[in-house]
Backbone:
């Protein structure tokens, strides 16, 4: 690995880590597109690498910061909720990855992009704006 690739990987990891700690995102939103577009990874390679990064305890310090804050503010993070969701995440990750490796790269990129796009629209509440705009077109 050359120094330029090493620096690029560190920068991508730093950006994903900052966003992960800041708003709870990073793997899919930063790592996957950055690996595809800046380093030429296939969609499958990028998604697998992102999952590999998340496998190691890289988010533990960010989690602990939120956990401590929850204790001091009286809004604790419920560990039982985490364990239940983690069990579902484990099974879902196995099922999802089993499906993903059977899908061609171009289709997988489109599915990935649609999910990101839809999530952004929902989080900005633009879905209501779009529905109202379409309704107005036909009224």
Residues:
């Amino acid at each position: 690995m050359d120094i330029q690739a090493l620096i690029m990987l560190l920068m991508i990891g730093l950006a994903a880590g900052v966003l992960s700690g800041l708003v709870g995102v990073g793997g899919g939103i930063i790592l996957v597109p950055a690996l595809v577009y800046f380093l030429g990874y296939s969609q499958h390679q990028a998604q697998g690498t992102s999952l590999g990064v998340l496998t190691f305890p890289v988010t533990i310090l960010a989690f602990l910061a939120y956990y401590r804050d929850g204790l001091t503010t009286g809004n604790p993070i419920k560990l039982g909720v985490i364990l239940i969701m983690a069990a579902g995440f484990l099974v879902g990750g196995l099922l999802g990855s089993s499906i993903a490796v059977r899908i061609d790269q171009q289709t997988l990129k489109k599915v990935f992009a649609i999910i990101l796009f839809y999530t952004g629209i929902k989080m900005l509440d633009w879905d209501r704006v779009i529905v109202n705009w379409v309704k107005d077109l036909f009224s």
User: Anything to note?
Assistant: The radius of gyration is 18 Å. Residues 29 and 93 are 17 Å apart (CA to CA). The chain has a mean pLDDT of 88. Residues 104-139 form one domain.
